[in-house]
Amino acid sequence: MKGTYILLLKLEKSVTLKHGKKTSQLKPGYYAYVGSAMGGFSKRIPRYFLGPQKKHWHIDHLLDHAKIAGLVMFHGKRLEEKIAGVLSSYFEGIEGFGASDLDVKTCLFRVDPVELFSLLGGFRENRDTRRPQKHRGKQDQGG
């Protein structure tokens, strides 16, 4: 399955991060990184959790300092520029991070997680709200 994803990252302490020809000072807090996996989520996403054998993308260097706090995937279309464009209207961006092949200034934003997930509701496409959701695990049987 291919598409676009957002990694929610938590940075515990300040870090000076070199990415490409730029250097950025990142403050502690939450960051959202917007990326695409047009070759498939199964090829891209595990490297973030397991660690890459070779650092290739800007995000690989940030993950040396940050913890993954969440992941949102949008299957199908490449929405990376669209999502980054919307996030840039609401959150502070780290200029030049992860956007070298795109028509946006950045793919990394310092975010408030509650505001981020509120905004993301507008990107959920092709959902059928009439279909009941399957629940996994033990359900509350209390009365």
TrEMBL record:
It comes from the Bacteria. Residues 18-112 form the GIY-YIG domain. InterPro entries: DUF123, GIY-YIG_endonuc. Pfam families: DUF123 (PF01986). This is GIY-YIG domain-containing protein. It comes from Thermotoga neapolitana (strain ATCC 49049 / DSM 4359 / NBRC 107923 / NS-E).
